[in-house]
Amino acid sequence: MLSSETLRQLATLLEERRIGAGIALLENCRTEFADTQPDDRCAAEALGCLAQWVDVGFEGAELLAEMLERFPKAGRHAVPLKGYVHLRLAEALAAMRQENLPEALRHLEIALSICDEVPDPKVAAVANLWKARCLRKAGEYDHALAVTRRGIRVASEIGLAKMAAVMRTLESWLLFQKGQAKPALAMLQEAEAVLRKTDDLITLGNIQSAYGRIALREGRYDHATQYFDASIAIFNERAALEGYLARSLTNRAQAKRFAALQLRRSIDARRERARGQSKRPREDDSGQLERMHQLLHDAQADLARADAIYKRMGNHHGAGNADVNLASIYLDLGDLDKADERAQEAFHLGATKADYLLMCRARLAEAMIANARFEDQIGESGEVSRFAQLAHDCAKEAVDLSERTESRRLRAQAHVCHGLTLINGFFNNMEAARASCGRAEEYLDNDRHDALWQEVELLRAKILHGGVEDPNLRAWSQGEVGDRTLQEVVGDFEELVIRRVWEREDRKVLRVAQRLSVSPKKVRRVLRRLGVMEEERPIEDRPLS
Predict the structure, then answer these.
(1) Domain map of the chain by residue range?
(2) pLDDT tens column, 63-78
(3) Same fold, 200-275+286-314 and 352-467
(4) Which residue in 93, 353, 379, 452 has the fewest CB atoms around it within 10 Å?
(5) What is the model's pTM?
């Protein structure tokens, strides 16, 4: 029979984050856990203990499932209240591993309510941590942050400093998602200092991954890749952590893709300048193009590996995120069929679990693919409008799905995508696109350094240039003035404005003068110079009506 002393030792090792020693002890006691029966003393507590160790890397998920089957609902009335809370904790962990977040939250709420009646702060700390993680995965960041801080307070009050540090890594991530990178970074560093001498590989790897995500958000793609490399090395130390390994592989692939896009923008800008100056492109473009394609192919390899891990684990959210990222890379490489296939698969995986974050990302990918098909005029002429409408429908659905989450970045990304769709050659709705761009900017606040902000700037530039028919205005907006002086440019602009306002004001000179606060004489002089208004004859020469 499993002894209470063994459970106490396992609890102590977990509190001290001595994970390797705890896993070794569990392996020695695996038979005792397997033989535990519901009527054994501490049987329910053993379930809760095992669940917590499965969560930190012990390969005992199947054992946990077998033990849970021995506690049928019909017989649970006989379980003591102190044990019942551990039973609920175990059921929550099982539901979390199956990505059944509503079910996991239901069990955790029950566990927390029991902890209020029968004070058990250690269980309450764990339940708050798991509840916050479920809420984070569901995109409910504000609620998750409040629950995380409650768990930190409980753990700190009972002296569980290392557990509180684990929770602070989650708090840091949630602050980062809300655009508070500086306090998030400081909190990560504090948590790392507390946990550095432990072998809590999950948390240590997550800290390196979080550093990478912060660098990614700041547009420091090489630094981000280095942090993700460090997290991958940590997760590779223990076979049971392959799910975390897959997540870091996905993150590293993102960093490589963004670095490739940065290279492509650099090449395009240099070629544009060369065209403007009638020069040949620089010879080193071929090397940069080769580097760009290598980064994209490396990213594909990372995602393929992550996808295989996620599918083997049955992790819908992870597999879907890998699919979304693969869809983006196939789009970058021009393989629209494979991009579309991956995006649709991602949406299906998200819909299976009502994962609005994943569903939104998948629809965004589908919208951009449809936009690419429209712009390339792929298919018969009758299909072109279908692609434009499909892009609009997917982008609009992405906006609606993003509103069901608390991710400000995802909302911004959805509005950017919608705006880009509204200004394509089919809709050409500059006003609506401008409104989408404005909403995207509001959601990003100070988060204005990475690839997403560059997408906002791209949308803004397209709106500016797309809404300007006059070639001079387009050139001036790019800083191209030729050999003209500022005074000459201002004179040309004055003529353009007076003419446009005159046309808008039903060709009434006095209205133009009032609208622009200039003299009617000046308006007439400009319009005559432009040849759009004839010289007025003296009154006596005019025919009688």
Answers:
(1) 200-275+286-314, 352-467, 479-541
(2) 999 999 998 877 777 7
(3) yes
(4) 379
(5) 0.82
